[in-house]
Amino acid sequence: MQEKNVGRNLLTIPDFRVCRNPTGYRLEVMAEQKPKRGRPPAKHSSPDYAQMSLYIHQTVRSLVRIELLKENGEFSGLVEDLLRDWLKQRGVRVPSARKAAPKG
Asked: Which of 53, 70, 100, 101 has the highest count of CB atoms within 10 angstroms of its CB?
């Protein structure tokens, strides 16, 4: 559904499709779609995040995972915090995150 300002009024234009039948054409208003249920948007669907792969020793990964489970943390948050701190130590000005990142 589209909304357009017409003067001081807001005009709502429903979505439609053109249907052809034996006598000609007709416009058919499409039903409004309900929002999808399911998991909320995650980092993989955010344009503010990029995927990164790295290799670490299995033992280190396991120990980090245990500690993160204790505090309900996540790998990507930990790595981003460590990288931000590293950049700051090197004198690089790091912009703060605009909003809390979605988990995922």
From this structure: 101
